[in-house]
Write a structure and sequence with these properties.
This protein has 140 residues and is an alpha+beta fold. The protein has one domain. A hairpin with a 2-residue loop joins strand 5 and strand 6. The radius of gyration is 20 Å and the shape is globular.
């Protein structure tokens, strides 16, 4: 009986050790193929986080996704950074410097940067609402 209990305990330890090496659920949902009325997704890349901008690297992002969306002759580049905590995503927003037609926000643990050379700021802000409401609303 003791041998059976010891074997059960060993099996439980091995299972727990195996579970601890399972990949973590990604913070950033897969980018949808379309957003709003007519925004079509381009390619998606997941660069290594050690190549993230300096201002973010210190906050230790755990995931980075880059993509773009196109609507007729308009294009918006989107970068999302999965941060370890919501506080670090908020801090990333505070430290980020918008340049030109760039806007940034955070939702939960995700810090988002949208930029465009072809979309005016008002249109870019509308696009960011699409990202927040359609893409990040809980992982479509």
């Amino acid at each position: 009986m003791r041998v059976r209990a010891a074997m059960g305990l060993c099996a439980a330890v091995v299972m727990l050790a195996a579970c601890s090496s399972l990949p973590h659920k990604p913070l950033i949902p897969v980018p949808p193929l379309t957003l709003g009325e007519g925004w079509q997704r381009g390619g998606v890349t997941t660069p290594a986080v050690d190549g993230a901008p300096d201002s973010l690297r210190a906050l230790k992002p755990v995931q980075w996704v880059r993509t773009s969306y196109r609507k007729s002759d308009l294009t918006v580049a989107v970068q999302l950074f999965g941060m370890p905590t919501e506080a670090s995503a908020f801090e990333a927003r505070q430290k980020w410097r918008n340049e030109g037609t760039t806007t940034a926000f955070h939702k939960g643990n995700v810090f988002v940067v949208c930029s465009s050379e072809t979309v005016a700021m008002a249109g870019l802000l509308e696009f960011t609402r699409l990202v927040e409401n359609e893409w990040l609303r809980g992982g479509r």
